[in-house]
Amino acid sequence: MEPSHQPPPKGSAVSAQAPVTTETGTVTGTETRPAPQADGGLRGSIRRNPLTWFFTLAFALSWAAWTPYVLSENGLGVWHFAFPGSGGATQVTGVLPGAYLGPIASALLVTGITEGRAGLRTWRARMTKFKVSWRWYLVVLLAVPATLTLASVALAGRGPALPPAMVLAAFLPGLLIQMITTGLAEEPGWREFAMPRMQRRYGPLTATLLVGALWGCWHLPLFLTEWGGGPHVAWTVPVEFIAMTITFSCVMTWVFNTSGESMPLVMLLHTGVNNFFSIAWSDMFPSLSDGDIGHAILLSTTAAALILLAATRGRLGLPAR
Predict the structure, then answer these.
(1) How many CB atoms are located within 10 Å of the residue 302 CB?
(2) Radius of gyration of the chain (CA)
(3) d(CA 43, CA 49)
(4) Is 70 exceeded by the pLDDT of residue 23?
(5) What is the per-residue pLDDT for 250?
(6) In whole angstroms, how far apart are CA 157 and each of 53, 154, 256, 279, 287?
(7) Could you tell me the CA-to-CA distances from 259 to 53, 130, 202, 264 in Å, in that order?
(8) Cα–Cα–Cα angle for 73, 287, 143, rounded to 5 degrees
(9) S-S: 199 plus which of 120, 176, 207, 275, CB 3.0-4.6 Å?
(10) What is the pLDDT of residue 307?
């Protein structure tokens, strides 16, 4: 009488039966090996969809942290409370906490769950990759203010004024502060975590456009506050801002890829733009208003993006595999 063979019930721990061979070469029976358990639950979902979870957490955490700022007198005025400081000074207390909580915290959390210590070591290696050619630093330090100056000259119709010595003295310290605040808050998420994974899945150009658009949309609640000229701001302002983040992302992707994924260099590029407008721009172009800042950035980043896309045939420095 032959033994009956019935498949194990669903959910059984038995996945395979392998023959057991003795030293003489005869098969004596089978051994049962445990099947790998399905990767379920929240951790399993994060492991299967790391990019979706990263973007969801980055938006949710930052927007939740920005809610008091948006509702305060610095924003919609629903709550009769104002964040300390005046003008741009409220960015430190109202904007920066949410900026730190979103991209960088989400990147670390998802990396730790999906890749463990090895992934965190890779993350740290990119974040501390200062050893690139000194020419890279020189190009970024000089090209950013030079390009923005040319764009501002085109808008103003006249050359720049020489900034005071105090402004020149504050330029490098301001850049260091921007690296610690804006650079460290945003780029470890958008560029360090998202770009390598997005490029592997979609290619460099599509990945850049997607990350650029999401990066811009992440800022949207801030246009209801004094940070973005709100709360009553024209719809064209955030639209122009998102267009700028897309074109600027092309430049940042090129620097990220061609520098061997050096995050300090990418952060220097990002914060160089912020620092130029925070420290020197108003003294150099007194005839332009704050509303022209967005025009100048969009003009310069669009020109740079078109040149890089043409020169690299859309690869943006990513080596062909």
Answers:
(1) 18
(2) 26
(3) 10
(4) no
(5) 97
(6) 46, 5, 34, 21, 10
(7) 28, 10, 21, 10
(8) 90
(9) 207
(10) 96
Cα separations in angstroms, 196 against 53, 86, 262: 16, 39, 12
CA atoms within 13 A on the CB side of 153: 10
**Residue range 117-136: average pLDDT?**
90
Measure Cα distances from 143 to 29, 137, 170, 179, 305 in Å. 73, 10, 19, 17, 14
What gap in Å lies between CA 58 and CA 47, rounded to an integer? 16
Q: 17: which 2 tokens? A: 């039966």
Pairwise CA distance, residues 267 & 239, whole Å: 24
DSSP 103-119: IIHHHHHHHHHHHHHHH
Q: Which tokens sit at 267?
A: 């952060």
Query: Which residues is 14 bridged to in the sheet?
Result: 34
Q: Which of 57, 79, 61 is nearest to 70 (CA)?
A: 79
Q: Residues 103, 58: contact at Cβ < 8 Å?
A: yes
Question: What tokens does 269 get?
Answer: 């590029």
Task: Give me the amino acid identity at 192.
Answer: E
Query: Token digits for 38?
Result: 């399905």
Angle, vertex CA 180, rays to CA 142 and CA 210, nearest 5: 75
Cβ atoms within 10 Å of 178's Cβ, excluding its own: 22
Angle between helices 50-71 and 204-218 (to 10 degrees): 20
Q: What single DSSP character describes residue 181?
A: I
Q: Give me the percent of the chain exceeding a pLDDT of 70.
A: 87
Residues 196 and 184 sit within 8 Å (Cβ to Cβ): no
> Could you tell me which residues come within 8 angstroms of residue 126 by beta carbon, excluding any fewer than 6 positions away?
192, 261, 262, 263
d(CA 7, CA 222): 58
